[in-house]
Amino acid sequence: MAGQLQGKVVAVTGAGRGVGREIALLCAKEGANVVVNDLGASADGEGADLSPAQETVNDIIAAGGKAIVNGASVADPAGAATIIEDAVKTFGQIDAVVNNAGILRDRIWHKMSHEDWNAVIDVHLNGCFNVSKAATPYFRDQGSGSFIHFTSTSGLIGNFGQANYSAAKLGIVGLSQSIALDMARAGVRSNCIAPFAWSRLIATIPATNEAEAQRIERMKTMSADKIAPLVAFLASDASKEVTNQVFGVRKNEIFLFSKPRPIRSMHKSEGWTAQSIAEEFLPAVRGSFANPAERSGDVFGYDPI
C-alpha cells in the first residue's frame, strides 16, 4: 500500500540526528524522496561534520527509499537555497519544507552576549526564513506546498536562560502565520510544531535543582520518533485544510495551541490617565493576568503517558 507521501519530495533541515533524523526516516518510509540537510555542527553551532546526515541517508537507502545529503548552513541564504535547488535538481520538485535545524546557547539574561543572541537567531529564525524563501517560488508555481516550522514552548510560554532561543521560536510562529496568510491564495500552507523530545540539545540544559532534574528525567522518556507522524501528516495531501496552526507533540499526546487574543477589555469614554489605569483598570483585569513566573515546565508538569 502506498504511503501518505508517495511521490512527494520533502526537505528536512537538521536531519542528521534526533528529531530531524526521525522525521526524514518516516517521510521516506511514507514514500517521500528526502533531502537530508545537516551541517553537522555541535549543539552550540560550532564545527561541521556531514557524517550524521550521510548516516541518515544510508539508512533510508538501505530501507529502499531515496535520499540525498545537503550539508549547507540554513543561516546562510545562499546555502539554504541549495537545499531546495538540490531537491529540484535531483527529484524534480519540492513539496514540503521541514524547518527543524537548531542550536542552543543558553545564558541567563544578564550574561547573554550579542554573539549568543545572533547565533541562535541566525539558525532558528533566519534559517526558517532562508529555506522557506528559497522554496516559495516553486510552491507558487505548482500551486501547492507545505511549510512545517519547529517552534518551542520556550517561546510560547517562556523559560529560564533562553531569551535568544525563546525570541527566535516565538518569531517563527509570527513568520509562519504571515506565510500562511500571504500564500493561501497560492494553495500553500504553513504550520508550527512545538516538540517535546529528548535530544542532544536538551541534554545540554543543566539541572540547577531537584525539580529541574526530575523534568529532565521525564524528557528522557519522550523519544524523537513520536514527533515524526505529525510532520508526515502535515506534509501530506491529507492536511490540505490545515494551515496557520500551532501544534505540540508530547510523547503520545498531540496539542493544538491557542493564539494570543484579547481576554478582557475596559472602555472609558473620557480616556485614560496613568492614575485611572492604576485605580480602575488594574483591579478589573488583575485576576486575568498570566502568571508572570510561569514557564514551560510549570504548564506541562505532569508525566506524559
TrEMBL record:
Residues 8-204 form the Ketoreductase domain. Belongs to the short-chain dehydrogenases/reductases (SDR) family. This is SDR family oxidoreductase. It comes from Sphingomonas lacunae.
